[in-house]
Amino acid sequence: MMKWLAFSQTKIAELSSNYLGLFDVVYQTLHTGSPYPVTREQTMTQIKILSAPKS
After folding, report:
1. Which one of 11, 12, 13, 43 is at 20 to 30 Å from 1 when CA atoms are compared?
2. Which domain range does residue 52 map to?
3. CB 8 within 8 A of CB 20
4. Does any domain span residue 5?
């Protein structure tokens, strides 16, 4: 199920999470060198959103 969140006039998709899938991706990145699917810029944007004051 996908929800849309409004943040600073930008729509951001919220996807359901899967921790086992996350651990598999981390393993594949560390052991086979496959690219991690989340970029540094995406991580920084997420931190800014989560750190924003609640209004």
Report:
1. 43
2. 19-55
3. no
4. no
37 assigned to some structural domain? yes
pLDDT per position as a tens digit, 20-51: 888 999 999 999 999 998 899 999 999 998 99
Cβ within 8 Å of residue 15, ≥6 positions away: 2
Report the alpha-carbon distance of residue 6 to residue 53 in Å, rounded. Answer: 15
What is the per-residue DSSP string for 10-45? EEEEEPPP-HHHHHHHHHHHHHH-PPPSS-HHHHHH
Report residue 19 as tokens.
């921790």
Q: How far apart are CA 21 and CA 10, in angstroms?
A: 27
